[in-house]
Amino acid sequence: xxxxxxxxxxxxxxxAWNPMKDDYTNSRFNNYSSGPGAYLDPALQPxxxxxRGGKQPAYAKEANGDTATKYVPYLVLKxxxxxxxxxxxxxxxxxxxxxxDVRDSxxxxxxxxxxxxxxxxxxxxxxxxxxxxxxxxxxxxxxxxQQTEPIPSDNEENVEPANLDRxxxxxxxxxxxxxxxxxxxxxxxxxxxxxSAAYDSxxxxxxxxxxxxxxxxxxxxxxxxxxxxxDNTTKIxxxxxxxxxxxxRAYIEMPEKSRKFIDEKSLQSLGTYDPVREIYENNHKxxxxxxxxxxxQCENCNRxxxxxxxxxxxxxxxxxxxxxxxxKHRQTCGKEKLNDLKPKKEEQTNISTSVNNQKExxxxxxxxxxxxLSPLNQEESSExxxxxxxxxxxxxxLTAISKTNIVFIRSKADxxxxxxxKLINEVQSAGKSLKKLTKPPIxxxxxxxxxxxxxxxxxxxxSDNEQCIKIVYMDYGxxxxxxxxxxxxxPPQLVNVRRFVEPVILKDVPEMYMTDEIxxxxxxxxxxxxLVLKFDEKSDLISDKGIYxxxxxxxxxxxxxxxxxIKLCKPIEPLDTDEAFYANYLPQKQLxxxxxxxxxxxxxxxxxxxxxxxxxxxxxIEVEKFQKDxxxxxxxxxxxxxxxxxxxxxxxxxxLDGKWYRGRCLEIVGDGYPSIIFLDYGNxxxxxxxxxxxxxxxxxxxxxxxxxxIKGLPEQCETKLVQKxxxxxxxxxxxxxxxxxxxxxxxxxxxxxxxxxxNLKTEGLIKxxx
Length: 770
Description:
About 25% of the residues lie in helices and about 20% in strands. By secondary structure, it is of the alpha+beta class. The chain folds into 4 domains: about 35-45 and about 55-145, RRM (RNA recognition motif) domain (Alpha-Beta Plaits, 2-Layer Sandwich), CATH 3.30.70.330; about 205-225 and about 375-565, SH3 type barrels, CATH 2.30.30.140; about 255-340, no CATH class; about 585-760, SH3 type barrels, CATH 2.30.30. Strands 12-13-19-22-20 form a 5-stranded mixed barrel. A 5-stranded antiparallel beta sheet has the order 17-16-15-14-18, covered by helices on one side. Strand 21 (about 540) and strand 22 form a beta hairpin. The longest helix is centred in the last third of the chain and has 20 residues, at about 615-635. Mean pLDDT is about 75; it is low at about 60-70, about 145-165, about 230-235, about 285-290 and about 335-385. It holds the Pfam family TUDOR. It comes from Ceratitis capitata (Mediterranean fruit fly). Keywords: Metal-binding, Zinc, Zinc-finger. InterPro entries: Nucleotide-bd_a/b_plait_sf (IPR012677), RBD_domain_sf (IPR035979), SNase_OB-fold_sf (IPR035437), Tudor (IPR002999), Tudor_domain_containing (IPR050621), Znf_MYND (IPR002893). One of its GO terms (molecular function) is nucleic acid binding.
């Protein structure tokens, strides 16, 4: 019996023990120290209301009357829309919490909303602020506040403070092993296409041909494309399939069979003017016609041109327009007799004879010409090459995308348009008799480059490596890397012709990492879409760089090009609690598979498991590029804690350097320190919720880093083995893998390092297999 009685007593004591109640009524713990509740009278704090059983404090009565005036939590609404009623305010507030009363002010247009509890007031306050209804929301403050009587328990010196250690890390209930060490992030040097030293050298060709140093600021976002590292899973699907895209530029990819067919038809169909004999000739049937009296309009696109069909003398600006108009043109072609029209001497102008073999050299290349392109003398060349043809309100077209905020544009004024097309035709015609370069060119030299079987003027930016000569296409603006065998000597008459493109900075657009979404939108404007140029010639000029800050407006849709890019660039913190992004939101890049693969080690803090995190050097540089965007975004957010869900993406602060990195939540054990894996480096750390932020939808950077198992190592490596591995494979080092194998289903890689394993076996750190 005595034992049963003792058990009952213990049970009663356990039933009576309520630690949650103790915490709830403890003013040291359950008190508003920040947020809307911090402005309340101390007697209205949750812990004090709980001790009084929800009753109002004794001083909450007016001394001069029988009517009791309760000082309850309330909000003040100011600057409300005209005509709004109490019922409307009540309906809005009751969506988010219980409302006791809605009162209006007799002196002004304020409304007061009373709430039964602080929690209801805070819930409504946060909802109104978040949804931005258009009026101001303030927390009501108590007037004529009296000092409340101190709580005896708070003044007793012998009372021990409550044990409220909420920062203890729970190591026992974790399923994932954290990294043994906090290692510094590796950094990899990125070599720019051109530096200021190339401009400053004595007798620099680069300074003469680019006096404004435009190509110092256009180090662009297309390194991976130039390196030939493409991903077939992320194609840019833009409407017109005939257009291809490379290094920020559009072009037409034409099969060789089609090219030969067009060359033949061009000789048969389009007449070519011979200025010596003053006649148009057709080589197929030796048709001859006199030169047209004046410049005509293309039958297909109505643009001015001076090329005619050899059979009927209808005007066309090129073979493409003639082909498009053929269904209609065939009804009349050749049926009308050709009249001999004597040319007027005063109307004759110099037109090149190089239109014989018309080719489509780019999306913006057509075969029309008017202006004479003559070489300039040495004194005029520098000024002519950098001549600015931009005018506020003019129509322009994009020729190349350099960064999110830097693009190249070309004037579409008639005289500029004609001169540009004339130059392109000159280059194509000269391409058949060009001499290849036999030795590396010098920096700043103008050459002709073979780009996708088409010829273009290019300027040398760096020629240290014959297999990777850095150039810029002068008449488009995009950078490229070509082999020496793809470069030709430029004829003198093409060297000093001015550039037709200008780099501009998109006003108010930030410089961000070029994601696929941004690239797809910006590339869609490379197909010849007309844009209206807006800028102020005085205030928008950056004089030290010789470049303008401009705004571009789509002429057809009136869409602001700048604002659309800003919308895609600027990361916005998710406001909806259900807006979360998980691991499958980001594309995972696979490492190259095969033999003798060079990789860089991003992190080796989990060598105890026989694994390291690796990527390629080109991808490691890409990782560093978007780190700047992460720091700016995370630093702009208010200090607030966030607990991500399992597999949810987040931004987390790394303890060692205090910087922010992309992460994914692996597990939550309830101690305020979820386990986070840093996606771009591979280490796992326990990060406090105060150092975690929500992931924005705009950060769609791929995951370039992969976990790699080293074949031949045990699943669990001993301390001595780990120490030796850290010496042989230091963090940030470059390793040559004998082979790389991909397990796509598990998103895992296995690498072979035979020499490493042999050395470890020799030293007895790995047991020989039987």
